[in-house]
Request: fold
Amino acid sequence: MRYLTFALGKGRLARHTLELFEKIGITCEEMKDETSRKLIFTNEDLKFRFFLAKGPDVPTYVEYGAADIGIVGRDTILEEGRKVHEVMDLGYGACRMCVCGPKKAAPLLEHHELIRVATKYPNIAKDYFYNTKHQTVEIIKLNGSIELAPIVGLAEVIVDIVETGSTLKENGLTVLEEVCPLSARMIVNPVSMRMEIDRIRDLITRLRTVI
Ligand code: PRP
Reply:
């Protein structure tokens, strides 16, 4: 039997995923050692192989078939736009992609003003403003601490992830519009989907019993 290879987005998401897999008897002890610099881990009994990658790289590994399966946030899947099948909502990491800003920015969205939008997700933001809202905007790509942008005058609004809402609140910002709900998803390479359909189906069925 060939290895079924999983790419997991690093960090909180990977921890959740390993917990979930443990519940259905898929364990990988060596992966839990967070001090280890090892990149790839195997479960020889099940012929499963796991590796950790940066979130945005997970769909890339899966599209090219270097991983059969990926576990990553829906934000990353939408942003990267790779040719992969999204097969399952794993439920955790639930949050929302939102347009946020100071309350006074609300009329700018209503009146379709030409505004600047700062975001770590330029493709999601572009799609939302151009295809859903039909509003022409200037998208400014940032790499983190997006909430700063409206405060220091870089942009009128931001498109960002809102989980508890506390980052917005502490910075005097608010949700102005919701773009879409997000959570962790399982993605599969289209060829693996056909070649390994039985093992993938079995995995999904077992995961369903614990979600
Ligand atoms: C994310 C997101 C928000 C925050 C939302 O940032 O970009 O800033 O979490 O969470 P909350 O609604 O619970 O406050 P992250 O911590 O990933 O860091 P970043 O600013 O570097 O993107």
Q: What stands out?
A: The pocket of PRP is lined by residues 120, 144-147, 160-167 (CB under 6 Å). The chain has two domains: 4-93+183-210, 95-181.
